[in-house]
Amino acid sequence: MNVDLSSISSLLNLLLVVMVVAAIVAVVIWVVRFASAPRASRAPVEERRPIVEERRPVVAHGHGELAPGWYPDQNDPSSTRYFDGQMWTTATRPPR
């Protein structure tokens, strides 16, 4: 069996070109995904605001405890948030 060194060299060159093109395509895809990601997801954790602040609006009982119910949302004046008697929930709705 006679192996032609020029054909092996051509195949290796073609393989190298394909690998370089694949690497360039991978980098371009990564850059496009990074650039199109929402900026909030790239922000450091310490810069994000909490969803709910621990401020109690009105005392309903004489003992200083807040009764369960819907109260004005401290983070969004256009909605109300439900307090279950122990903690603020994630449930919100428009004020009634």
Provide a short characterization of the protein structure.
With 96 residues, the protein is of the alpha+beta class. It has two helices and three strands, in the order ααβββ.
Describe what you observe in this structure.
A three-stranded antiparallel β-sheet has the order 1-2-3, with no helix packed on it. Helix content is 38%, strand content 15%. It has helices spanning 5-36, 39-42, and strands at 69-72, 80-83, 88-93. It is rod-shaped. With 96 residues, it is α+β, with helices and mostly antiparallel strands. The protein has two helices and three strands.
Looking at this protein, list some descriptive labels.
alpha+beta, rod-shaped
Show the helix and strand layout.
Blueprint: H1 5-36, H2 39-42, E1 69-72, E2 80-83, E3 88-93
Antiparallel strand pairs: 1-2, 2-3
Topology, number of strands: 3
Structural class: alpha+beta
The stretches of 5 or more residues where confidence is low (pLDDT under 50) are none
Quote the distance from N terminus to C terminus.
Answer: 89 Å
On the 0 to 100 scale, the average pLDDT is 80
Tally of separate helices: 2
Portion in strands:
5-15%
Based on Cα principal axes, name the global outline. rod-shaped
What is the CA-atom radius of gyration, in angstroms?
Answer: 30 Å
User: What is the helix fraction of residues, given as a range?
Assistant: 25-40%
**Major sheet details:** 3 strands, antiparallel
What is the string of SSEs from the N terminus onward?
A: HHEEE
Strand order of the largest sheet: 1-2-3
